[in-house]
Structure formats: C-alpha cells, structure tokens
C-alpha cells in the first residue's frame, strides 16, 4: 500500500486516518476522533496538510488538537471547522487531486485521488432521513458520474481504509442502488 493507516474504531466512533508521505509534506486524509491518532500524528515531525472528507464528528473532532500547516475542507464542513481552504473545484497538489463528491451521505463532501487510490470518505453510505436510511436518487446519479470520471483503480472508504474496492465494484454497487429508484419518489431506501 502506498499509504499508511491510523485506525479509528467504535468507542468513541472514529473513522480511520490515511497518511500519504511525499517529499515536502505529509498529507493526512481525515482527522478522526481518537486520542491515539492525535498522539501519533503530533509525534511526526513533518509539515502536515490535512484533508477532511465531510463534517461528521467522527471525521473532524481531532482537528483542533492537531498540528498542521494547511487544511482543505468542503463548503459544508467549513461551517463546522471555521477554518481551512474550501474545495469548490478540482485542486491539484503534488500528485494529489482533491475533488467534490455529490455525496448522498453528507453535504459538501470531498475526496482525494492519489496514485491508484481514491479516498471517498463515507460516500458509499446512505443518510438518515427521519429514521430511515436513504439515498437521494438525483445525488446518487451525480455521485456515480463523478466516480466514473476518476482515474483511480481502487476506492477507499474512511471507516475501513486497510481494504479497498475496485472502481468497477463501487460503480456496480451504486448503480444497483440507483436501479431501485421509483418515479414518484426522490429517495431510494437503503434497505433491500
Ligand atoms: Zn459520516
């Protein structure tokens, strides 16, 4: 693997964190919500650039305890972090590509493409709407189109960064959900 993973976990709920080491910077995808992640990251004596996929607490909570020189977030995440550069269009840094994800899971999500990998946060997960897990059909279509355009072969989700799905698996998975849409309903239930 060309990236290192700091594991999150369940209690408190924390996503994993990916570290991508380049000549000049250590790129950190997600901040997580676990004390051990803070300790480990702050021990690393290299300039850090943090990228956060979306605003949920298990992805951003560590942020104010971390040392870093630059932060990239989506527009909706900025409402919570109040700091960082908003990714409003594609951004290219070193060999990295930051992009917006029209995510069914969280508004203002962003992803990171690096080498053969696309880090997509929780974009494969549905959202909770009035107690029901659903995908918004229109957003899902946009999400599929966004993912189809990526060059990465492997897609990495933030709650299990040590494994990945192939791009085809991800597209097939999302298209099978999209195929269950009904004409009169803007939402697709995540339950089969
Ligand atoms: Zn989330």
Supply database-style keywords.
binds zinc ion; six-stranded mixed beta sheet; alpha/beta; 192 residues; Metallo-beta-lactamase, Chain A
Structural write-up:
The protein is an alpha/beta fold and 192 residues long. It has a domain at 4-123 and 153-165: Ribonuclease Z/Hydroxyacylglutathione hydrolase-like (Metallo-beta-lactamase, Chain A, 4-Layer Sandwich), CATH 3.60.15.10. Helix content is 23%, strand content 29%. It is built from 5 helices and 15 strands. The protein has helices at 35-43, 57-60, 75-81, 137-149, 167-178; strands at residues 4-6, 17-21, 26-29, 48-51, 70-73, 85-86, 91-93, 96-101, 109-114, 117-119, 127-129, 132-136, 154-156, 165-166, 187-189. The strands form 3 sheets. A 6-stranded mixed β-sheet has the order 1-2-3-4-5-6. A 6-stranded mixed β-sheet has the order 7-8-9-10-13-14. β5, α3 (75-81) and β6 form a beta-alpha-beta unit. α4 (137-149) runs antiparallel to α5. The longest helix has 13 residues, at 137-149. It is globular. The structure holds zinc ion. Zinc ion (ZN) binds at residues 54, 56, 105-106, 122.
């Amino acid at each position: 693997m060309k990236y290192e993973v700091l594991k999150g976990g369940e209690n408190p709920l924390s996503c994993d964190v990916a570290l991508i080491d380049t000549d000049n910077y250590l790129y950190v995808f997600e901040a997580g919500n676990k004390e051990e992640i803070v300790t480990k990251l702050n021990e690393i004596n290299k300039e850090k650039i943090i990228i956060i996929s979306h605003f949920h607490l298990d992805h951003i909570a560590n942020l104010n305890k971390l040392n870093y020189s630059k932060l990239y977030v989506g527009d909706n995440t900025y409402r919570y972090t109040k700091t960082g550069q908003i990714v409003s269009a594609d951004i290219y840094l070193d060999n990295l590509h930051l992009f917006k994800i029209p995510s069914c899971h969280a508004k203002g999500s962003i992803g990171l493409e690096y080498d053969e990998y696309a880090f997509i946060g929780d974009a494969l997960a549905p959202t909770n709407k009035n107690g029901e897990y659903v995908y918004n059909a229109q957003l899902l279509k946009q999400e599929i189109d966004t993912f189809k355009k990526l060059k990465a072969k492997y897609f990495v989700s933030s709650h299990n960064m040590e494994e990945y799905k192939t791009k085809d698996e991800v597209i097939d998975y999302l298209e099978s959900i999209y195929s269950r849409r009904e004409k009169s309903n803007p939402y697709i239930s995540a339950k089969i």
